[in-house]
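Each field is listed here:
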Amino acid sequence: MTPSRWHPVSVLLSVGLVVCWSSGFIGARLGTEDASATTLLAWRFIVAGTLALGWLAWRRHRLTRRVVVAHLGLGLLTQVAYLSGVVGGIGAGVPAGTTALIAALQPIVVAVLASAVLAQPAGRRQWWGLILGLAGVGLVVADDLTGSQAAPWAYLLPVFGMLALSVGTVGDRRLPAPVSVLDALAIHTTIAAAGFVSIAGLTDSLEPPHDARFAWAVVWMVVLSWLGGYGCYLGVLRRLGPTRTSALLYLTPPTTMLWAFAMFGESVGWAAWAGLALCALAVAGVLTDRPGDGRFGKATDQPSAGSKSTSESGVKVSASG
């Protein structure tokens, strides 16, 4: 237990992280009521990309072309592909809570991928965690299909997004040059802005709806999901370390489900809670498999400001919400 775990600032940041991380799924549900997922994402990143470009302009003397090029593919995977799948799935009718639950399987999938790609063997509990996690998601999805208006294929969209994020996370560990979280976030956000605006232009879906609800959804996703989510993440990461930070992210599916029920009337049945329980067991198995920081057996869970530790967490930060 780190000394700052129950400090009021740590508690406040932890609560803020869970709420703001969950807000991304709620904002997607709110914004796709009046527009397509492509339109919502384009305008979210027009605003966020402008802020990211300002940061990169200020940091230009510290970033090399090699670093920017190395992060190009990661930005496409962890921002464009991931958010297209998540927001596209919600726009196609997949409940926000179910989408959050599918997305929460990403660290478990990464653990398994790393055992094959990075020669970092997954432990027995990690394999059982993957099986239990998939069973939990399957239970929730099966319950949704009995009463949801979403087509069965729509559930493949958040699965695709989660897999893209997982591949990007493993790919981050092969990058030759470490980069800070804020720099990686800014690069990925700028790439995503160019990608989503281009897609919206090509599909003639760039023009936003002329109503206040869509504008509110864009502000929601930039302020809460982007600035709030990443800001709280960085604060918690510095005070509590990566393992506890990752564990907090697994509280987002039940938070999202309750939030979606309050705002949109999305039902939370017994199967959803049973699926969440299975996923909680899966996460507990993964996080307790070996001493370390939740990144496949590295040896520390203490907060660190080192550039390598910061950069290794960067993909996960930049991709959610």
Q: What stands out?
A: Residues 291-320 have pLDDT under 50 and may be disordered. Residues 56 and 62 are 9 Å apart (CA to CA). Residues 17-319 form one domain. DSSP finds 14 helices and no strands in the chain.
